[in-house]
Amino acid sequence: MGDALGKIRDSIKFVQASESRGKLFASCVDSVGINLRAGLTLDVSTRWNSTFKMLDRAIKYRFAFDSYQGIDPIYKFLPTTAEWDLGIQICELLQPFDEITNLISGSTYPTSNLYFMQVYKIEYWLRAHEDNGDHVIFEMVEAMKAKFDKYWHDYSEILAMAAVCDPRFKLSLLEFCFTNLDPSTSQQKVDNVKDKLNLLFKAYSKPTTQSSQFVENLQEAVAGVGDSQSHGKAGINYNDFNNFRKKNVTASGKSALDLYLDEPPIDVEMFASLNVLDYWKDNSHRFGELSRMACDLLSIPITTVASESSFSIGSRVLNKYRSCLLPRNVQALICARNWLRGFEPYDESESGEVHGEDDNLPSIESSTS
Question: Residue 200: left (phi > 0), alpha (psi -120 to 50), or beta?
């Protein structure tokens, strides 16, 4: 793997080393009929996704590199067919992770309801590739699965509850994922999440001191108005009706959470880009405290910070012109940056490509395919 990545990386550096080589490579791109707006890019050690970006771009220019070797005798870094094929496999290996990372790193839409399906996709994908015949891919998947099991083997119960708060999935998503991963324990895990969800809802339904006092005052005021109106000519008294309705609701034994779970899920295909927060806002009159609980769960970000750029320092130290520094030199530049350049604002326009996010809501069709 090191030889394949090394040759691809060195090939990009070579054609970008001078303007004349860049023009010569551009002519090769035209000669082989490649029509792409995105150019070549190098990876940097402080961003894992930059390796995927580098491979993805370089593979598209594969035949241009073949053509370039025929006109520049100094160029000695052309990957072999086997090395290109390995690069393609590695790129395919990393692509799902890049897509999932882009999805869950967004800050303009709720992400907690997306957590469960995305983590399931990663684990299911790792299991499907853990017996890969290629020893390079096998070792990569083995190392990735060890890291995954360390941090994600035990699913987050609170974020599983957030997935239930998505009206397109509810408990059926948990049943689907748990069954595919381990049918013997799937029902137990679903019941555990449901029990925790009921406990949380009871906590939200428990009135606080202030709210209880407010409700009591409101009930007294309404009762006063009701008494004054109930002794009119018609002699209508709604108190008996209200008591009758309360008894019926209590007798049914169904809370707002039970009513929500009993309703059929919303069609996923028709509402692929549903704004779940708007759904709960629009249905707050139906579900009451359940809406408040759902909004609190959906407001939890999956990632520690909403955007990678908050702590991404890679582009502030390394760039396409300087990306081969020794680790100790990179560390020195990071530690001494404030003394060398002073405090200056970070311009995102210089950051190159980072995990982007769409202002629009993520589509379930694109995120679960």
Answer: alpha
